[in-house]
Design brief:
Elements (H helix, E strand, L loop, with lengths): L1 E7 L5 H20 L3 E8 L11 E9 L3 H9 L2 H4 L9 E5 L11
Antiparallel strand pairs: 1-3, 1-4, 2-3
Length: about 110
């Protein structure tokens, strides 16, 4: 099943985010290689593709896991959580039923 994983950054998270990013991307790459990642990306702090020094305010991931518990365990081990990028109490992990996507197909 697909799960939405979302969390919000602490204030001025850019330095911590930059430091933890290689490990974070490696975990996403593993999901890609297993054909389990639908999308992932950060929320720019300003209305721009590249927010520069403004940084980001959070991130969203939609990925496939065997259970909600597996998704929560995976999310809890994300380097952004472990390195203090995300603000405590903002993490959301919940099942997601995808009914449509950009190319017009549905599941």
């Amino acid at each position: 099943m697909w799960y939405l994983i979302y969390a919000e950054d602490i204030e001025n998270s850019l330095a911590k985010r930059t430091q933890a990013r290689p490990a974070h991307l490696a975990r996403l790459q593993k999901l890609i290689s297993e054909n389990r990642l639908l999308l992932a990306g950060p929320n720019p702090a300003v209305d721009a593709e590249d927010p520069g020094e403004h940084g980001f305010t959070g991130s969203a991931i939609i990925a496939s896991f065997d259970s909600l518990e597996d998704a929560k365990e995976w999310a809890a081990q994300d380097p952004y959580w472990l390195e203090g990028v995300y603000r405590e109490g903002t993490g959301i992990v919940k099942p997601l039923k995808i009914t449509a996507k950009m190319n017009g197909s549905s599941f």
